[in-house]
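<goal> How does this chain fold?
<sample>
Here is the protein in question

***
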Amino acid sequence: MTGLPAGFAGLEAQLWLWLLAAIRPGAAFLAAPVFGAAQVPVQLRFVIALAVGMPALGMGMAVPPDGLVSVAGIAMVTGEVLVGLALGFAVQVGLSAALLAGETIGNAMGLGFAAMVDPMTGTQSGAIGQMLSILGTFLFLALGGHLLLAAAVVDSYRALPPGSAWLAAGQVGGLLRFAGDVFGMGLAIALPVGFAVVLVQLVMGVLARSAPALNLFSVGLPAALLAGLVLLAIATPQLADAITAAITRGLDEARLLASGGG
């Protein structure tokens, strides 16, 4: 059996380096919106992750002497995966506030039963939640969020170099606290429409008490639904601003993690 030609002598080592460089961006894109959608081919995701991870090769990234299938190699890969997932998760939390706001508004309007498959996650979600989630995706792309996430991944190699890329306890705690803020951000987005729809339902409840013959289900549900649709059309600019603020907070949290803060 003949060996590899001289020009391909270092090919295997170079392939291992490329694979290692693609781990952190690949994990970030897996947890992030748009990139992590089921419709995005795995091959395309890997090519983009490899392109984003190339700057790490110029920062002294090297495979451990015993290879990746060793204690040092597994620890290095684990650190890369955790940092990437944290960066992508921070951005995903900002966008999830739009979905939570849509679910809140949909339940207030009586559309909690109107569920359909979300193309981003592959799971069922309410119609209003999916509408706001798609709106949030458009705003994320309009803000250049995909480019900002890639820039955060590249910047993270300076503060968290390969081989010592472990999140501190303060960074993990800050990320968990930010994840808890998704409920506050979602309610803030849903407040203009959700509160008005609740007031409509309260009025219908008073009418039902004053006129017992009035069928609340035949009158109250259409009234809440119509009021919700009208209020959604009126408050869409305010909802877009609130969703943009939530996405911006997610990107800021990702940049904070990439800089080694938290």
